Amino acid sequence: MGLVITLILLGLLLLFAELTVIPGFGIAGILGLAGFAGGIVLAFMKFGTTIGFIVLFGTLVLCGILLFFTLRSKTWRKITLKENIEEKALSSPEEQGISVGMEGISLTRLNPAGNGRFGNTTVEVRSSEGLIQAKTPIKVVYIEGLSIFVVPLEIENN
């Protein structure tokens, strides 16, 4: 009977962890359900149908009580997001003041992407004409979505 109780309590612990700590439905949830099923099947096999049904219904009642107290407690209020996120991950080049024709300098090697500085603004840029070494004067030739394409000024002036 000790193994049956251990399997059920382990399954209960793993399901509780899956509900409160671990996001999604993954290994802990599957192992928790397997612990429940193993404990119930073992109770049926070793102790007969009467004890098996008592263990089955006891396990279901125990899960219901756990679910009730988990949903009723302040656990969900502690782990839910209360603030709205209104910031964008990346602002558009236009919002940063970058436009076609602006001149700047490459801060890193552009192979094909790297960092460039235009005035006081540092942004990620992409080379439209192969490799551009660091500290090379560059010029914005076009903007596509959030990507800024540049060419070295030496090629532009020739």
Describe this protein's structure.
The structure is a single chain. The protein folds into 2 domains: 2-79; 103-157, OB fold (Dihydrolipoamide Acetyltransferase, E2P) (Beta Barrel). With 158 residues, the protein is of the alpha+beta class. The relative contact order is 0.10. Helix 1 crosses helix 2 (27-72). The chain starts with a helix and ends with a helix. It contains 4 helices and 5 strands. The radius of gyration is 31 Å and the shape is rod-shaped. It has a 5-stranded mixed beta barrel with strand order 1-2-3-5-4.
List keywords for this structure.
alpha+beta, 5-stranded mixed β-barrel, rod-shaped, OB fold (Dihydrolipoamide Acetyltransferase, E2P), 4 helices
Secondary-structure map:
Blueprint: H1 2-20, H2 27-72, H3 75-79, E1 103-106, E2 113-118, E3 121-127, E4 137-144, E5 147-152, H4 153-157
Parallel strand pairs: 3-5
Antiparallel strand pairs: 1-2, 1-4, 2-3, 4-5
Helix pairs in contact: 1-2
